[in-house]
Amino acid sequence: MTAPLLSVRDLRTWFHTSSGIARAVDGVSFDVMPHETVGVVGESGCGKSVTSLSILRLIDRPGTIEPGSVIEFEGRNLMALPEKEMRKIRGNRISMIFQEPMTSLNPVFTVGDQVAEVARVHSGASKREAWERAVEMLTTVGMPAASERAKEYPHQLSGGLRQRVMIAMALMMDPALLIADEPTTALDVTIQAQILELLAEMQERIGMSILLITHDLGVIAESATRVLVMYAGQVVEEAPVSELFAAPHHPYTEGLLAAMPRVGAERERLAVIPGSVPPPTNWPSGCRFHDRCPFAWERCATEPPPLYRIGERHVSRCHLADEPERRAEPHEPLAATRA
Amino acid sequence: MSRVVAWALCAAITVVICAWLDRAGRRASTDTGPWRRALARFHRNRAAVVALWMVLAACVVAALAPWLVPYSPTATPDIVALKNLSPSSAHLLGTDFASRDVFSRLLYGARVSLSIAMLAIILSATVGTLYGAAAGYYGGRVDAVMMRIIDAALSIPRILLLITLLVLWGTVPMAALVLVLGFTGWFGVSRLVRAEVLSLKERDMVVAARALGARDRDIILRHILPNVLSPVVVAATLGIANVIIIEAGLSYLGIGVRPPVPSWGNMIQDGVSQMATVWWVSLFPGLAIVATVMAFNIIGDGLRDALDPRQLDG
């Protein structure tokens, strides 16, 4: 088996705020193999974005990546790198694209200039050379009439084209890993598909891995090979995509899948998971999902479940793995009865 | 004869600059870069454009003053026979108590007042922007200390501070006046810039730039400063009006620009003792101050509308 490209071990990113310690990411471990697309799903506030920013060490005070967290990339522990070395990795070996391409681009520069800037920062290319490479890159990501449109400003482009510009910036240096944080959330459905297709195409061409962060299981199904489900700062389930969709184990994953609209399904109300994500300053004791879980029993309220191995590449943070007979007796979750 | 040529040249320069600006304004469509869009919006604001023409004309006249004036601004040809002459064809705006030509002094006064105000504003806008940007960008304790210093500085009334400094200085060279006005005027700008930077650095574009490997320097120069430039430009334009008034006040009190060098402020002082009879000595510099200050304020308001950062984004 080849070595993983990225290996995150026991990542804990905590925010030391005046109202207590917010443990936004609390002991997350996972691997990303070369050329692989790993999806990360979860509701807002589950820590998926903080995880991605932590990998690039872009966490500002009051947030800190707690000692003991390990982020190993291409064999180097990023946590031990000086800031100067880290900067050479950002945008070069690991790149990131964001949800809102409008606010991620600088309104006062042309898009070509912004793409070129990445080459200038990382390879010290001359202005002219960088511009030529930028136009080339914009063509590669499917910008029509790139040499003309490179001279336009972000507000002159459509949302889909802006995201293509972001992708051009991120892939300028042929990174080994692309972190895509909700790359299609702000886009129309038809454009979403085009952008996902573009990402797959670019992955083929560059041979990079993608860490795809989204709350949209549809996007995961389309693009990822393996999925991490996050809840309350932890990974609660990890499985290959097909296995996760066919046989979810964790009740939270089941809930997410049930809450997904499906074409052709009988017209009924979409299932919802009762309650909401608890505040990160005060995670519930025991299993962090227990008060929203239809199977929870006494053990769940007191004993935090470990990650149980339930298949060759399938783990789940749920005591049901230990006591599967409990699945026969669903009940109203605590959060629903309280409301 | 050469004076006529100089005036013609002066008019020609002003017209050329204004025509050039007008053409640029008409050409700049709203569907282009943010600065050109701002220019197009400014161009549609006729009051601001006219005010800008006025200021440009004043600047050109001030710059060419030595070739335009009929008399030396400091010469006192006959302090008995030629003093306090009322406006006539020989002395367009009359003469003052020392037989000096008011019109000539007014033009030289424009030179002094405008250049002091502009240099002082450039100084305070630069210092204020750098200070505010540093405080906002580094944040935390650095920001807290830097802002407490500003709070302390702002708790001293500026006019008292200026009077104290200038009186202690004794004879004040013009450069010193610029320094004193500049270094007492940047606190407001730095607060403005700091607030702007605080919100800018949380924007996605800054996170995105960092995620792509940008250094602090790139982020400050490319992402922060160009985006705080517009409030600074507005504040500086309005600030010029303020500095003109302050300089006039200090010169009126006799501690700004010292006689015999004319400034609009000390010219008013020259005429104030006999305002009822020799009204022209004080009136014309007074009108010059009012017109210039109003023009700068109108331009400032126009720039504020044209450079609204929300529209910059859109």
The helix content of chain B, as a percent range, equals over 70%
Order of helices and strands of chain B: HHHHHHHHHHHHH
Low-confidence stretches of chain B: none
From the alpha-carbon coordinates, what is the Rg of chain A to the nearest angstrom?
Answer: 21 Å
Q: What is the gyration radius of chain B calculated from CA atoms?
A: 23 Å
Give the strand line-up of the largest sheet of chain A.
Answer: 7-8-9-3-10-11-13-12
Residue windows where pLDDT falls under 50 for at least 5 positions of chain A: none
Distance between the termini of chain B: 55 Å
Q: Overall mean pLDDT score of chain A?
A: 89
N-to-C SSE string of chain A, H for helix and E for strand: EEEHEEEHEHHHHHEHEHEEHHHEEH
Structural class of chain B: mainly alpha
Oligomer: heterodimer
Q: What structural category do the secondary elements of chain A indicate? A: alpha/beta
Strand content of chain B: under 5%
Percent helix of chain A: 25-40%
Shape of chain A: globular
Detailed description of the structure:
- The complex is a heterodimer of chains A (339) and B (314).
- Chain A is α/β, with parallel strands linked by helices.
- Chain A has helices at 48-55, 83-89, 101-104, 111-123, 127-140, 146-149, 159-171, 189-206, 217-223, 241-246, 251-258, 298-302, 334-338, and strands at 6-17, 20-32, 37-41, 63-65, 70-73, 76-77, 94-97, 177-181, 209-214, 226-231, 234-240, 308-311, 314-316.
- In chain A, the strands form 2 sheets. An 8-stranded mixed β-sheet of chain A has the order 7-8-9-3-10-11-13-12, sandwiched between helices. In chain A, strands 1, 2, 4, 5 and 6 form a 5-stranded antiparallel β-sheet that branches.
- In chain A, helix 4 crosses helix 5, helix 5 crosses helix 7 and helix 7 (159-171) packs parallel to helix 8.
- Chain A is globular, with a radius of gyration of 21 Å.
- Chain A starts with 5 loop residues before the first strand and ends with a helix.
- The mean pLDDT of chain A is 89.
- Chain B is 75% helix and 0% strand.
- Chain B has 13 helices and no strands.
- Chain B has helices at 2-27, 34-44, 46-68, 102-138, 140-154, 158-169, 174-183, 187-200, 204-211, 216-252, 264-272, 280-306, 309-313.
- In chain B, helix 1 (2-27) crosses helix 2, helix 3 (46-68) packs across helix 12 (280-306) and helix 4 (102-138) packs antiparallel against helix 10.
- The mean pLDDT of chain B is 87.
- The interface between A and B is medium-sized, with 36 and 26 residues.
